[in-house]
Design brief:
This protein is mostly beta strands. Helices cover 7% and strands 55% of the residues. The protein has four domains: 102 residues; 56 residues, no CATH class; 110 residues, no CATH class; 125 residues, Immunoglobulin-like (Sandwich).
């Protein structure tokens, strides 16, 4: 009997001990959940690339107990690229170890809230049309496909006018995009952490205003940075950097957003605020002050101002390659003469700063001194000491026409063609028109009424002075072999 009692005692002790061990394991498996929002933010830096991409570095100050903890990092961009996320402790890099990383984007909205309560009871708050009293009805939400369907007592209805009251927000619905980390924390003291990530739908571009003087030989220029933020969050007092260059992305999506109107009269009042420097194979522009970039906001910041820039205006009459391949006769009457302005991006011209890709809008004062828009063009990334060429449109009072006066085949692979180009100037002043002819194959000029210059293997240029209210004809014959 004594042995039996002793065995029962051992078994009881073992069971009690095992229960304590089980309780200990259960307690240790529980993970405390902590949250951090913008109230903990101590700094944020945003680098925007002109390929609809941004790099965000969000610094916050938090205090976590030691052990395995779940940290909810709230109020991040909704267009975040989850695979780009990285977190680190700035206080002690070895104190935090990331065990799991999640991005919660199942955001709270009426549709999802109804979906989560299918099969559950809700309350419908409505005004009784007969008694004109506010009443509350308990209902079971049966379905939310195409609209909520309820069971009220023993009847089923839809289109109920009542306002739906939910007892609580489901756990798996959140109000804001949130990063969730399961962390192993080795420090109980307060520490600074930094979360960095890439986000889509934040973009920037450069816009320029060029104001010509009366003679079209000098201009003032201002540059603006236009930032378009649709990434899904606001960046308050951010340290802002802009990267200009053709950054390669997988499945890159790039588009220009809706253009903003510029007031050319006030463009030159803004002071440049960006520091420019080389960065890898690109250029980076750092704003020298914090700036707030709001969600769904288009913001403009002055990039540069320059005055008294030498400008060269050109009137250009272009030919086409196919003109030389067979007999055409009169190819085109009243052909347009294109108008360009050209600037050299040099320090001695009050420029010399690498200019990001963007739209140049050109203005000029009319006879009453009011600035008028005269054209715009898109320029590519332009390093210092390179030329900027802007097409403004086509000349109104300077026109041209072209006639092929002869074309013949002189050998198996040899041809001759003759052309007469008429240039007519209806302006009140003399003009110079550059005629550019793209001649195919191996060619030789046999005769020409004006001097020419062979600028490329397949191109010849003529500079033709055309007096006011006069017509000038350019006549030439060329032999081609191809």
């Amino acid at each position: 009997m004594g042995k039996i009692l002793f065995c029962i005692f051992l078994i009881t002790c073992f069971m009690v001990g095992f229960g304590n061990i089980s309780n200990t394991i259960a307690e240790s498996s529980k993970t405390d959940i902590f949250s951090t929002g913008l109230e903990d933010q101590i700094g944020i830096a945003v680098t925007i690339y002109n390929v609809n991409l941004g790099l965000v570095k969000d610094q916050r100050e938090i205090k976590l107990p030691e052990g395995k903890k779940e940290l909810r990092f709230m109020e991040v961009a909704s267009q975040i690229i989850p695979t780009s996320v990285h977190i680190k402790s700035l206080t002690d890099a070895r104190s935090l170890q990331v065990l799991e990383q999640n991005y919660e984007y199942d955001l709270l909205n009426p549709q999802k809230l109804l979906d989560k309560y299918v099969g559950k009871q809700v309350k419908l708050y409505y005004k009784n049309p007969y008694s004109e009293r506010e009443e509350i009805v308990t209902a079971t939400l049966l379905s939310n496909n195409g609209g909520p369907i309820y069971r009220i007592e023993d009847e089923v209805t839809f289109g109920h006018p009542g306002r739906v009251i939910f007892p609580e927000v489901p756990e798996n619905l959140i109000s804001k995009p949130t990063l969730v980390w399961l962390l192993e924390n080795n420090s109980s003291s307060e520490q600074k952490i930094e979360a960095s990530y890439l986000t889509n739908e934040i973009n920037w571009r450069a816009d320029y205003v060029l104001t010509l003087n009366e003679k079209d030989d000098r201009a003032d220029m201002s540059g603006w940075v236009t930032i378009d933020n649709k990434s899904g969050t606001t960046y308050r007092n951010a340290q802002l950097k802009l990267v200009a260059g053709d950054v390669h992305r997988v499945h890159d999506e790039f588009e220009y957003k809706k253009k903003m109107m510029h007031v050319a009269e006030t463009a030159l009042k803004a002071e440049p605020q960006f520091k420019e420097e080389e960065f890898f194979e690109y250029h980076i522009y750092t704003l020298q002050r914090p700036s707030t970039i709001k969600e769904n906001q288009t913001k403009q910041i002055s990039l540069l101002t320059a005055g008294d820039i030498p400008v060269r205006k050109e009137l250009i009459f272009f030919g086409s390659h196919y003109y030389y391949l067979s007999q055409y006769g009169e190819i085109m009457s009243n052909q347009k003469v294109a108008v360009f302005v050209e600037i050299e991006n040099k320090k001695e011209n009050n420029l010399g700063m690498p200019l990001p890709k963007g739209i140049v809008r050109v203005y000029k004062a009319d006879s009453e001194g009011s600035l008028q828009f005269v054209g715009e063009d898109l320029i590519d990334h332009t390093p210092k000491d390179e030329k900027i060429r802007v097409k403004l449109g086509d000349a109104f009072d300077v026109v041209g026409s072209r006639k092929q006066t002869d074309w013949k085949k002189t050998a198996f692979d040899t041809y001759e063609a003759a052309f007469e180009i008429s240039l007519r100037n209806h302006k009140k002043e003399d003009v110079m028109v550059k005629v550019i002819e793209p001649i195919p194959g191996e060619w030789k000029m046999l005769s020409s009424s004006h001097d020419y210059k062979k600028t490329e293997a397949s191109s010849v240029e003529f500079i033709i002075p055309v007096p006011k209210d006069k017509e000038v004809k350019l006549i030439y014959r060329v032999r081609m072999r191809f």
